[in-house]
Amino acid sequence: MSSFRPGTSSIPDRKSVLRITLYGFIVLFLGNLGAMIDLAFRPEIPYFDEEHLIAGGITAITTILLLGALEMYLARRKQMEATLLESNERLRSSEAMVSKTLRELEAIVSTNPDIVFTVDLNVNLIMWNQAVEVATGLAPEALKNRPILEFIVEEDRPSVVRAIQKCLENGIAEAEIRVLNAHGGSTLFQFKGVLLKDEDGSVIGITGMGRDITERKRAEEALKESEEKFRLIFDNASDGILLADAESMKFEMGNRKICEMLGYSEEEITHLRVLDLHLEKDLPYVLAGFQSGATGETNMSMDIPMKKKDGSVFLADIATSLISFHGKQFQMGIFRDRTHERMLQQRLHAAQKMEALGTLAGGIAHDFNNLLMVVLGHAELALNEISPMSPARRSITEITTAARRAADLSLQMLTYAGKAVFRVERVGLRDLVEEMAHLLKTAISKKAILNLNLERGLPPIETDPSQIRQIVMNLIINASEAIGDRSGVITVSVGATRCDEEYLRRTELREALTPGLYVHLEVTDTGGGMDAETRSRIFEPFFSTKFTGRGLGLAAVLGIVRAHKGALKVYSEPGKGTTFKILFPAMAEAEDAARSPESSSLADWRGKGTILLVDDEESLVALGARMLEHLGLTVLTAADGLQAVELYRERGKEIDLVLMDLTMPHMDGAKAFGELRRLNPDVRIVLASGYSQEDVASRFAGKGLSGVLQKPFTLSRLRELLEGLLPEHPDGEG
Hints:
By secondary structure, this protein is α+β, with helices and mostly antiparallel strands.
């Protein structure tokens, strides 16, 4: 009989079929042979009896089928035996392989430095590797069936409970947990747990693996601490620091100081390149220096202007060096704002120069006065002694006149030196200027127009009237010469300004003055203005942009102001005219009395409503607010156009009128005017400017401007303007 290999068909092969057929013929032959023998002994039965033939055939077929079935059974049995034998061999091979794998796995698990363990549903430890024993410092018998929470630091046990609950819900969980050891210490492990199930899918426990991350955590903490220290030092450095890619010149990071210096946020800094922070004229120099430094040839150090976000410029001292970080080259720049330092140097230089010139002028005036005394004394004696009809009398008179003029010049020199003696008295600055009005008009060019803007109700000042007249005349003549042969406007203004220490510190004298109320005199012209170099020299004796030898001029003005413990400010730009502002301390006594003659006229009109006052000068905001409140109005203030727009966006329904300066940082009055008109086309806006009122009005013609106030404006001028724009309080109520 043929055998079957596992995986072959159970149908008998060809040899088996032939063999079964041969067996059938043998059986048939034996059957017929038996029949013939039977006939030989029993002759009464016919040989060809049909019944016998059928019986023999059936017997033969049955025999064949039985033999075939027997053969198939034997073949199947042989096949099953072979399959069983092969399966047993495979099973033995698999068992050996599994046993080997288990031994290898056990060896891996037992020698694995990571913790591997299994707990039952009661969270008792039922299996673990050697790493568990090492981590806990306990023997196997001390670990078996012990609750796992006993080996966990108490503060971390809630984390274990939460991790087990999460594992039961999601099938997996992670947690950082400290494992106690027998010596009282602990080790931090990063654990991951998974559910353990039997063959029918029922949960029988949790298998976990933990990796010692103590050193990693220490390294991370050390790195974090190092980064925090670096950031602390980086951000609190007194100098600005920028890090730029040596190839792209794009900034990677900047510290807090550089952000303050430039006006950008740290995020905005990272979107800028080196050339974005410099003036166009300086770009070739900056680019050459950066490229030189980026190749490591040299470190770059320079003083150069830098642009802020708002467009303003400051002088920076920059030192750069090439550094390598993570295989990448960077240029590190350290920036120091030298604007204040340069300003202090300029102030010191100016103060030293003024002191030296003052000392020189005082010394010359002293000696010169002695000489003049001789000349004048003898000239006067000669005039008394000679005949009135003498031809020499005229010459002596001219000598006397020239000597008196020289004496006036000497007095100016003493004034400049701060050594003149004044005959001080209580003076109303408005009255004094009004008295000079006719004289002032004759002193200026015929093409120049003189405007007087004199506030009423001002407190008096303590001064020498002749010295104030000299100041006014000097400033008027300078203004007229600045306008020259062109048409122009000279405005003389008198008003009050409340000055704080910072404001007074920024004046030309830069001396320690007392904050408080000052009465100011302003002379503004629409001439060509001055550049920075000219402005730095205008108070030098005998300096002139027209021709030499004019005299002390503005130097005398400065001396008079210094002697009166006042302050002086100059506003000038090329092509935009010049304003001289002189401030004298107001007399505190009888201030109300000084204001009373005009106070009744100011009380004739009191408005109602809310004014938004916008100006970048704090002292002007304070004074303007006081003036508006005096007129019965509620005042909101903003320091620049941006703040004004935001405030109007929030509280525009409350605001009846906007009184705004034209020249401001961040957003000037012109741009803010447009933004406010977009928010409310009907908004009423009055612009204040130190420039010509006509220039401002023509610039905004047809744009809906409600009015213009030329700085400095008086309270009466302000009242006149508002009277036509705002409603009046009934019965003068405040």
